[in-house]
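Appendix B. Worked example

We walk through a single record from start to finish. Start with the input: the chain for Winged helix DNA-binding domain-containing protein, Streptomyces goshikiensis, length 392.
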Amino acid sequence: MSPSLPLVTTAERRHRLGRRHRLAPSARATSAAQAADAVVALHATDAATVFLSARARLSEGDGPAEIEKALYEDVSLVRLLSMRNTLFDVSTGLAPYVDASTARGIAAKERRTLLKHLAEDGQGLDAAWLAQAEADALAALDAQGASTGSQISAAVPALRQKITIGRGKKYETEAGVATRVIRLLAADGRIRRDRPRGSWTSSQFRWVHTEPWPALPAAEARAEIARRWLHAYGPATETDLRWWTGWTLTDVRKALAAAGADQVRLEDGSTALVSPGDTAPEPAPEPWAALLPGLDPSGMGWADRGFHLDPAHRPALFDYAGNLGPTVWWNGEIIGGWAQRPSGEIVWRLLADPGRAAEEAVTAEAVRLAQWLGEARVTPRFRTPLERELVA
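Next comes the structure step. The output line below is what the pipeline stores for this chain.
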C-alpha cells in the first residue's frame, strides 16, 4: 500500500454516511425518490421497510401517504427484482440502469428455470404455452385494471394449472404456476406492483400492466450503478460491491474501472475505492440519531460493516440468515436496536454507552417515529433476537 494514497478515517466514513445517506437532519431529502437515490436503492423485500427507510431520510411531510403517492400515483419509485435477486425500490430515473445491469439477467434465468420445470412435468407445457399464458394475464389486467395475483388467476384458466417439481425426488412437490408466471412478468418489466390490499404495511400487492424499461447496454448500466454506489458507500471494496449487487467478480471489476474509481487508505491499513476525485476530508455534520428498519441500506450496503458496527453486537441484531434487524444509530454508528410493541410503543436498547446527548437524541427520534406511525403496527419479516426480546 502506498503511503501517498489519501487517507479516509473511520470518523470521516461515518460523516459521509450521515450526510450522503441523508440521515443527518440538515441533509434530509425532500422526496421519496431523492431518499432512494441517496442510497441507490431501498430494500423492498419487506413492504414496511421501504416506508421506514424513506421516512428516516425525509424532512417532515405527510407521513406514509407521501411515500404511497411516490409509489402508486407519481410512480417516481418502482420495485424491481434486482440486486442479489432481491426486491428493491429505485427511482424511475435509475430504474433503466438497474434493469439493464441486473434485472434482465435475473429475468432470463427465471424464464429458463420455469421452462425447465414445465418440460420436466410432462404435461406438454412449453414456451408457446407460457407465452400464451403471459399474454392472457396481460389481457386480464387490461380488462380488469389493477388486480391481485388471485384475481388474475381467476380470470386466466391457464394460471390455475399445477405442475410437479422434482418428480421422483425427495423434494418432489406440486406447485401452481400463477405465482411463477406473475413473477416472470414482473421480472421482465411487463407488470409492476401497485397499491396493496389493506394498509401500506401489506405485502398483498395488486398488479398493473406496464411497458418494459428502455434497453441499455449492460456494461454501461453496470458502470452507472457502480458510480452511484461508490458515491453513496465509498470508501468500499470490490468485495462490497460484488456482495451488494450479486454480479460476477469480472463484471464488478469492469464496472469499477469504467466508473473511474480512485483508491484511498483506511485507518486499518487496507485500501478501498471512492468515486473519482472523492478524497477531500469530510467534515462532521451536526449530531444525529436514527431509528432504521431491518434491511435498511445504511446497514446493508457493505459486506464488511466494521466501520459502523461493533462485531460484538452482531448476534443481537442479525437473524440466522444474516438479515439485519431494526437498528439505533448515533453519528454513523450502530449502537442498539429497537422494536414496536403491539400497543404501538417504540422501545429500544442501547448496546453501548454513547452518553447522555445520544440517549436524548434517540428518545426524540423514537417520539418522531411513533408520531409518524400513528395507528400502524410494524413487525419485521426477518426477526432478530433483540427485536423479539424488546417486543416480549
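Two observations about the output. The mean pLDDT is 95. The first strand starts at residue 7 and ends at 8.
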